[in-house]
Amino acid sequence: MLLIHCPYCGETLPETEFAYAGEAHIARPENPSEQTDAEWVEYLFMRSNVKGVHFERWRHIHGCGRFFNAARHTVTDKFLTTYKAGEPRPDIEALTGIKAGVKEGEK
Amino acid sequence: MTFDKKTAGGVTIEELPAEARFSLRVRDGERAAVAGALGLELTDTVGVMTSGSGRKALCLGPDEWVLSGAPGDAAAITAACAGVYDAAPHSLVEISEREIFIRASGPAVEALMATGVARDLSRIGPGQGARTVFDGTPVVLVREKTDSFRLNVWRSFAPHLLGHLFHVQKELASGL
Ligand SMILES: [Zn+2]
């Protein structure tokens, strides 16, 4: 079982209390009506599918209920860090020396 | 749902009497006003329980508490919060009928709890608690004393949870 640190509870807790919620830092377009179909496809469906460090959302659904973000290595399943929703993406390379998989052209 | 108290294998499993319970959601700016109206402190440290005026508040999340009080206190809690609602908007929902309350206590209680809870129980001290999962069932767990835990479980999940507890109690009693 994975152990996940909830940044709101301040505790490292069993995976069974959490739900995975997809890739993190995907901003909803500010002006939806101005989006082209291709842009909507990109926003709705296209994900980076990283082999390496992945930034992803989790929800502590059977605990405090909060969504937060995590950086997890998709090969080893190791959580490098977790941080509160709304906080900037941490510099993983500086923290761990591992290059994070960020899709080209992404913010 | 009711069941008989049973002591065996170093643990006692019993049902606790009904109480008034509420789910309270309030943001930082309004928290002090609501706490003042209720006559207790509301901590924003998840897992910590505070008490005052005969009521208890367990912090479940950064803006969420479960309030409990004597069965006759429900109307007074509702009125106290309604009194400050205009100045301090919040959400207060009565959930008194939603759960049944189980106490497991005794020298072997940690062994019993560890069969259902994947958390490190030593991280939950007396007077602390959490919303967590017990053998797949969502529960609110409170450690009342070192050797006494309280489980608040939704009624529909109670038969499963009690089945698990009594089964493990038999295993403990048989020396497994
Ligand atoms: Zn949490």
UniProtKB/TrEMBL annotation, chain A:
GO terms for biological process: tetrahydrofolate metabolic process. It comes from the Bacteria. GO terms for molecular function: sarcosine oxidase activity. Pfam families: SoxD. NCBIfam families: soxD (TIGR01374). This is Sarcosine oxidase subunit delta family protein. The lineage of its organism: Bacteria, Pseudomonadati, Pseudomonadota, Alphaproteobacteria, Rhodobacterales.
TrEMBL record, chain B:
Pfam families: SoxG. Coiled coil: none annotated. SUPFAM superfamilies: Folate-binding domain. It comes from the Bacteria. InterPro entries: SoxG (IPR007375), TrmE/GcvT-like (IPR027266). This is Sarcosine oxidase subunit gamma.
